Amino acid sequence: MRKIFLVTHRWLGLFLGIYLFFLSLSGSAVVFRPQIHRWFPYNPESLVEALPVLVIEWLTLFHDELFLGQSGRIVNGAGGILLILMTMSGLFLWWRGKRTIWVYRSTQGSLWWQFHQLVGLWTALWSLAWGFSAVYFAWPTLFEYFMEFDSYERIISGLVAFHFGRFGGNFFTQTLWVIVGLSPVLAVITGLWLWLRKL
């Protein structure tokens, strides 16, 4: 069973690597989208003044729908499902392993492995929420069908807030979300390094 989960996790990581890399970078930038609009009022007559807003809107469009409209949201929804599967398989591998919550040094290979799994472990809650919300953004009517209206409104508004770290405009929380949002970049890099060492 562990071997099956390991192969699943490895190939999902390789398949999603580049996708998660760029989605994580753009998503971390989008966290501060409301502040960008406040700090840099859009002025179409000045490219310099308009550039920050144009860039953040460009990144938002990429992150939300990959410049593909609804088709891009569906791609992200499928990516969200695979992210959930990859996270769950990673948690299973951690649980069936030594279950350490700190990086320790023994050999170079084990250090890389420990760092890779701990990045995933410490940010698993975020990864699951990001994956789940991506599924919602792709197919919102499915959620509406299975939930009562009041519960649906509360859950979805909370999910969206969690996705972007927007809890009452708390700058500290948003900064934390930016840092955690970059964790898939570290996971991709360390995972790729571990995979290359096996070749």
Number of strands: 0
Percent of residues in helices = over 70%
Radius of gyration: 19 Å
Element-level helix/strand string: HHHHHHHHHH
- Would you tell me the overall average pLDDT? 82
Poorly predicted regions are: none
Dominant shape: globular
| Structural class based on helices, strands and sheet pairing | mainly alpha
How many helices? The count is 10
Tell me the fraction of residues in β-strands, as a range.
under 5%
Largest sheet: none
Cα distance, first to last residue? 23 Å
Q: What attributes does this structure have?
A:
199 residues; mainly alpha; 10 helices; globular
Concise account of the structure shown:
This protein has 199 residues and is mainly α.
